[in-house]
Write a structure and sequence with these properties.
Helix content is 53%, strand content 0%. It is mainly alpha-helical and 94 residues long. Helix 1 runs antiparallel to helix 2, helix 1 runs parallel beside helix 3 and helix 2 runs antiparallel to helix 3. The longest helix is centred in the C-terminal third of the chain and has 18 residues. It is globular. The chain starts with 9 loop residues before the first helix and ends in a 14-residue tail after the last helix.
Length: 94
């Protein structure tokens, strides 16, 4: 296997989804000079996907994987709360 490509694992999947969530929040990737535009809808989708992953793997994760997933979700949820909604929903206060 190519050493530059990580082994497929639950941890790798968690980090891939977390990285995509951060990019969708407008957080710059270390390999890129400027931050991408924030996309709150996509950011929330990636956080929701991590929540689904947590729910569907309940009882089959190691303690380390559980702790790591809990921490990733906590950190991302704190960041996503700071994002402005992409579109105001009808009837929402302005």
């Amino acid at each position: 296997m190519n050493p530059a490509v990580p082994e497929a694992s639950l941890t790798a999947l968690m980090h891939l989804l977390a990285e995509q969530a951060l990019l969708a929040m407008g957080v710059p990737h270390p390999m890129v000079k400027e931050a991408p535009p924030a996309n709150p809808v996509a950011a929330r989708l990636y956080v929701d996907l991590l929540s689904v992953l947590k729910e569907k793997t309940e009882g089959s994760r190691t303690a380390a994987e559980t702790a790591q997933l809990d921490e990733i979700l906590y950190q991302l949820r704190m960041r996503v709360m700071d994002l402005k909604p992409a579109v105001e929903s009808p009837g929402s206060p302005k």
